[in-house]
Amino acid sequence: MRGTAALSAALLVVAACSARPPSAGVTGSLVWPPAGLSSPGEVVFRGAVTEMKAGGVTGVLRAIAGAREGAVAATLIRPVAVAVTGERLWVADSVRQAVSVSGLDGRSASFLSLPEGYRPVGIAAAPGGDEVWIVDGGAPRLRAYSRDGRFLREVTLPQGAERCGGAAVDRNGELIVTEIKAGEVLRLDAGGALVARTGRRGSGESEFNYPAAVAVAPDGTVWVVDSFNFRVRHLSASLQPLGGFGEVGDGSGQFALPKGLAIDPDGHIYVADARFDVVQVFDAEGRLLLVVGRHGAGPGEFSNPAGLACDADGNLAIADTGNRRVQVFEYRRRPSP
Question: What is the pTM assigned to this prediction?
Answer without folding.
Answer: 0.85
